Amino acid sequence: MILIALTNQPDVLDRLNSNNHVLLTELVNPKLSRIYPSFDSKDIKTIETDKVLYYNHRYGLSKESFESNKIINEFFSLTSTAVDNKGTTFIASIEGKKYPIYAT
To answer: Is 43 within a domain?
Structure first.
């Protein structure tokens, strides 16, 4: 809903195949994030090497859509991605560049 409100585009989200399963998550520059430095280094390694985070949604934002949407890309920093059952890399987490807004 945050992305729809920010862009004023009801169709900004992509259809994903990420229902009721645990996926590997790739953190993007975790040391530059405001949220991930508070994680223990052991937890960061676990997130990146083991399937430990649960995903259950049909809609989200693909990495391709994030990169091509100027409004979203200028407002948010990409902090993690995952890959759905059809091989689509999608945004697992983002954080506001100027504001303390976080989305998963």
So the answer is: yes
| 103 within some domain | no
pTM (predicted TM-score)? 0.89
In a domain, 11, yes or no: yes
Per the listing, tokens 């945050």 go with 2
Cα–Cα distance measured from residue 73 to residue 33, given in angstroms and rounded to the nearest whole number: 15
Tokens of 97: 């560049």
Domain that holds residue 61: 2-98
Contact criterion met (CB below 8 Å) for 80 and 27: yes
Residues 41/47, Cβ–Cβ less than 8 Å: no
Q: How far apart are CA 86 and CA 42, in angstroms?
A: 29
Mean predicted confidence (pLDDT) in 21-30: 92
Distance CA 16, CA 20 (A): 12
